[in-house]
Amino acid sequence: MKRYFYMALIIALTALVLFFKVQNIDNVTVSLLSWRMTLPLSLLLIGVYVLGMFTGSSVVGLLRETVRGAGLQNTRSD
């Protein structure tokens, strides 16, 4: 039963992403310093989301290691 729920969830999310992509096909131009890129709005938003996932997980990992390292230093000084 759980397997069918996950399959239905994946199908629903895929359909939602495809619907989003079809709805947002207008091109936008993005500029950064001297770089310019024109691409569909949906690809830009999906790219920003993926970059956010990577940077967010990096920050969480860095904070986790910092807290772990601080905990090790406190136990050594006792």
Task: Provide a descriptive summary of the structure in words.
By secondary structure, the chain is an alpha+beta fold. It has one domain (2-77). The protein has two helices and two strands; from the N terminus they run αββα. The protein has helices at 2-23, 41-77, and strands spanning 27-32, 35-40. It has a two-stranded antiparallel sheet with strand order 1-2. A hairpin with a 2-residue loop joins strand 1 (27-32) and strand 2. The longest helix has 37 residues, at 41-77. It is flat and about 55 Å long.
Describe the global form: flat
Rg calculated over all Cα atoms: 21 Å
E-strand count? 2
Q: What is the residue-mean pLDDT, rounded to a whole number?
A: 83
**How much β-strand is present in the residues?**
15-25%
SSE pattern:
HEEH
Low-confidence stretches: none
Helix content: over 70%
Secondary-structure class: alpha+beta
Tell me the count of domains.
1
Main sheet: which strands, in order across?
A: 1-2
End-to-end CA span = 52 Å
Largest sheet: 2 strands, antiparallel
Give the oligomeric state.
single chain
Q: Number of DSSP helices?
A: 2
Task: Tell me the layout of helices and strands.
Layout: H1 2-23, E1 27-32, E2 35-40, H2 41-77
Antiparallel strand pairs: 1-2
List keywords for this structure.
single chain
Brief synopsis:
The chain is of the alpha+beta class and 78 residues long. The chain has one domain (2-77).
